[in-house]
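In this supplementary section we document a worked example of the pipeline. Step one takes a protein sequence of length 230 as its only input; no multiple sequence alignment statistics are reported here. Step two produces a three-dimensional model, which step three serialises into structure tokens for compact storage. The input and output of this example are shown verbatim.
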Amino acid sequence: MGSEQQIAFFLRELKDGDTWRRAAAAKGLGRAGRDEHAWVLVTAADDRAPEVREAVAAGLGRLGVAEAGRAALPALMGDEDPWVRRRASRAAIRLGLDGPATVDAYARLLRDPDRHLRINALDGLGALGLPGHAPALVALLGDEDPAVWGRARVLLYRLLDDPAVSAEVLRTAEQGADAARVRALELLPGKWPSASTTHWSRGSTPCPPRCGSRWPPGCSTSRPRGRGTP
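The serialised model returned by step three reads:
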């Protein structure tokens, strides 16, 4: 906790300073302020400068006042500036925010072009044990980034008892493209032993489609390894 003089200085700067001074003041309040100063940061969440909005999000995460975070962070998670979205989503995770507005914000970030934000969305939804938006979550099985599709696969496995999730995984296993289809198929063993005999028979191991020149290990149609096969 900072001194009263420090806090008074940050409050003045947040109100009257230029962009960088306002941003520094928001960061300073996050480090030195008390719970009531989280609400001061909420009032600055619509500042015209993205640098200030980013600092506000960071400050709210540090102060740890969940109600104040809930009042500002979901909107900041949809900010036009990706750095603001990053800070806001990490702050929401840090505060353990839940509720419809936060879950909807995470769901939107599942489709964000910034890989860091897709990761943040998956981390946030994983902490809550919720899918956010099942089609968007399952679509991430086809993401090029292993940090993204790996998190998506882990979360989907946890949520396979959710009817919306299971239906979307099965749809992707049957109709999806490329990597998303393969990874959806890999989620199915033991969950739907009789599902879609188009792809496998009861009791057999689901076999993903051939990928390039390699067959996935354990696939019933894998090339047999005969004598002399490396």
